[in-house]
Write a structure and sequence with these properties.
Elements lengths: L1 H4 L1 H8 L6 H19 L11 E8 L7 E8 L4 E4 L7 H12 L4 E4 L5 H13 L8 E3 L16 E6 L1 H8 L2 H5 L4 E5 L3 E5 L8 H15 L9 E7 L3 H12 L4 E2 L14 H14 L4 E4 L6 E2 L12 E4 L18 E7 L2 H9 L4 E7 L3 H11 L3 E7 L18 E4 L6 E4 L2 H5 L2 E8 L1 H8 L28 E3 L3 E2 L2 H11 L4 H4 L16 H12 L7 E12 L8 E13 L10 E11 L5 E12 L5
Parallel strand pairs: 3-4, 3-6, 4-5, 6-7, 8-9, 8-15, 9-14, 10-12, 13-14, 15-16
Antiparallel strand pairs: 1-2, 2-19, 11-13, 17-18, 20-23, 21-23, 22-25, 23-24, 24-25
Amino acid sequence: MYLLEQKEHYYALSWATGATRADSWVDIEGGIGNLFAYASLRRQFPNETYCYDGEPVKLSKLNTFMGHHICVPKEGVAVHINAFNFPVWGMLEKIAVNWLAGVPAIVKPATVTCYLTEAVVRDCIRSGFLPEGALQLICGSAGDLLNHLENQDVVTFTGSASTGKLLKAHPRILQESIPFNMEADSLNACVLGPDVEPADAEFTLFIKEVVREMTTKAGQKCTAVRRIIVPENRIESVKDALVARLKTTSMGDPRLKEVRMGSLAGVTQHNEVILKIKELQTEQEVIYENINFELLGTQVKPNAFMAPTLMYNAKPFEQQLCHAVEAFGPVSTLMPYKTLADAIQLCKMGKGSLVSSIVTYNNQHARQFAIGAACMHGRILILNRDCAGESTGHGSPMPMLVHGGPGRAGGGEEMGGKRGVMHYLQRTAVQGSPTTLSVVLNQYQYGGKMQEKTIHPFQQYFEDLELGETLITAKHTVTDADVVQFANVSGDHFYAHVDVTSLEGTLFTGRVAHGYYLLSKAAGLFVDGRKGPVLLNYGIEECKFLKPVYMGTTIGVRFTCKEKIEQEQKTPEDVAKGIVKWQVDVYDDQGDTVALATILTMIKKRNQH
């Protein structure tokens, strides 16, 4: 929220990177939005200096020996070496994750746009919300920074594949086995489905998407569309539509509302793109360019400006430079395909991409493409009229989805919600008895020792409850009337519960009680109906029915305090409370567990301050 209050200052700086207001919105408010997205994940982690990974693992027949995985923060620093094209988003989408993991960061932005990163870092520190040392900034050369890294550190890199390979092979990184996550520029593709006709809504969506990806940030995006893959019988119609739309792209001072595309980040970047275009021209032709473009605004010079350039490759399986050479600017290559299988193969010839997209209204085509192309892509967008209104588009990575890709795209992975946090944690398997691990992990493990109290757990405040505390309930014998009444109340007349004549050839030797009846009856056994500190039932986290319960079976419940999670008080007037996870172990007269569930209750704290 503090950064959002300063956003106009960032916009005022961002125009100098060549970015329009719309370009800067993705960078600035998109980056801050990433912080929001990751802040919302904090409730998915326990109030511990570690988190659990997966479920407990039974390692012995009698369950006296078991294992669990925990993830603890690495005791080093995350070094983020970022690219020039997103000086705000590129930093915030990474530090949001390492902060949530409990790891500090050193940010090294690209020099050409580092002034914008510096402004945001200055405000992050000025806000006073961060622990000392949580964020440090290096502008300009990183010097010998990598020489000082140790095995508890993590390095991430965003930029060109060639630079990334050099850094990944750094002797210190190899010597210390330092995790290195690379997200490199890649030759991403956008495919027009074979079902799409020029009059279809999907055709218009395809043209808009490709042009947007060519012109946003002047094509300086690691996710930009570099290869436009179209059915051979649609080449002319697509070419005409693209050229017509590209001709309307207004260029000039990015501060002007009427300007659609600004400049490249600098003259050096402009010269590099020109060289790549010349290399690509050795195998393919330019079908649209505008050398004599006009610029809107009086305060800009043409030095780093470049009009969109559209190229055509008639034989993309033979002339393969388009699958290997990337011009990191407003440059894309149009190419034909005969079958969808050919289109998939062309996408794969990029040797690993961050993203590809297919525009189609045929769900079978979408399935064939997604499954066929997935091994070479970190993300696949399927775009059609049904999702277009809310789609974030081909080039927009989302915080809760992974970003990265195989091969040329760097072989790394970042974001992806909780998955991204795990990159900064050490996963460790812990083994022992259920009782010992209950204490070590601060979470009751099935089979561990239980303790009973004279006071009912629902009459205790959050602070008073202890892990492993168990209520052994009264017992109940399941009757025919119970099952019939539950079937009538719930409307669940599944044959195994109500029709004894239908059981031949099934797993059952007689009519069985509904699993949900068992859970409901368990609640009737463990709930104390008197008013107390319990505020509400918060939900069911997991539930398994492990053994059939026939008429006449007697059941009981072991109701155990499994885990306690404190809740935030958003305002001083909020009720101080916590969430308690309870293990509901329903067992039969043979002592076997017939149902096992984890339920959650919200319980008031004794101390309201």
